[in-house]
Amino acid sequence: MTIRNSLRTAGVLATSTLALALTACSADDTSAPQKDRASESRTTAPEPEQPSAPDHTTAPDDVGDRVLAQVTGRDSIVLTITGVERSASGKSVTVAATLENTGTKGFFGISAYGGTDASIKGRMHSLAGATLTDTANSLRYYVLRDTAGGCLCSTALRALKPGETVPVFAQFPAPPDNVRSVDFQLPTFPNATVSLGAAR
User: Fold this and answer.
1) pLDDT tens, 44-94?
2) 92: which residues sit within 8 A by CB, 6+ positions away?
3) pLDDT given for residue 121 in this prediction
4) How far apart are CA 53 and CA 37, in angstroms?
5) Are 69 and 192 in contact, with CB atoms under 8 Å apart?
6) Tell me, what's the pLDDT at 120?
């Protein structure tokens, strides 16, 4: 009876051990796929939504469209001043403008804008005749020149067709820092008074 009971006990223990082993394997089998799915979920998750690109349908303000002063000269030519700025060094002032032929005929009088100083190279088709006047101090400034004797201004100007507009510029010595307005004058045009700020 003792041997028989021992065998029976050994069989029960073997059965229990096998059941525990199968349970452990079953637990391992179910946990492994869960880890894989979790990893897959992380790798395939949708990317965070990126902020949309800025809307550029509304164009920024175009400083070229500013009108600081406007005067009409001979043969329906309109001079529009769009910018008057000191240089960063404060030693010069640049006047930016446009010339527009508002008449019905071509304009061939560009040579008048070159002034009368024959020593300026290429003056006949330029803005070499432009001046800047500090009325408060009774000082007049002429267009600056480069080392070759040409003006620091628009050159190689040509006849203006009806309705045509061309951008032009002229650079001058800068008036004192406390001067806040100047008169720009181009031959055949009236004076145009414009504001002059400090250097940027």
Assistant:
1) 344 433 333 333 222 233 444 689 999 999 999 999 999 999 999 999 999
2) 86, 144, 171, 172, 173, 174
3) 93
4) 35
5) yes
6) 94
